[in-house]
Specification:
mainly alpha, about 85% helix
């Protein structure tokens, strides 16, 4: 019973830590993002079935990774903030394309770095379960979005 209380407390702390990283001022968008993050945390928590000690080591590493990856993705989205591709010069198109590739490489490098960090806090089996859980959550999110439409 005490273990469940500790896991629940860690879960609450993790949810609250996501609130600190939220950078969007639009309340409805912010609320939606927070709801999705909370669902993702619950999904991953359930999928990995982490012990208390594993959770204490895992969540700080995972949150740090996601803070960094969200920044890269946010910067990447800004690359495509133009009206029409036809209005861009070849030089601008090349610069945007190069920055896009750099962003994808940064994401891959970051994943590789945090994969190594996760090896220090979890078993290889749990790491693979994490990657599967993330893919499954993404599929579930898309499915739920399609069902709402």
């Amino acid at each position: 019973m005490a273990n469940k209380k500790i896991v629940f407390l860690i879960f609450i702390i993790v949810i609250n830590s996501f609130n600190l990283y939220s950078q969007n001022n639009d309340n409805s968008t912010n609320d939606r993002k927070e709801k999705i993050k909370a669902q993702k945390i619950a999904f991953i928590t359930q999928s990995l079935d982490l012990s208390v000690s594993e959770a204490q080591l895992f969540w700080p590493v995972y949150n740090e990774y996601h803070k960094k990856i969200e920044k890269i993705i946010c910067d990447e989205r800004k690359l495509f903030k133009f009206d029409k591709i036809e209005t861009l010069t070849d030089k601008e198109i090349e610069a945007i394309s190069d920055k896009y590739i750099d962003s994808e490489v940064q994401q891959a490098d970051l994943l590789k770095e945090y994969h190594a960090k996760l090896k220090n806090v979890m078993s290889p089996k749990k790491i693979l379960q994490l990657y599967i859980a993330e893919k499954e959550f993404h599929k579930k999110l898309i499915k739920d979005l399609k069902n709402k439409q």
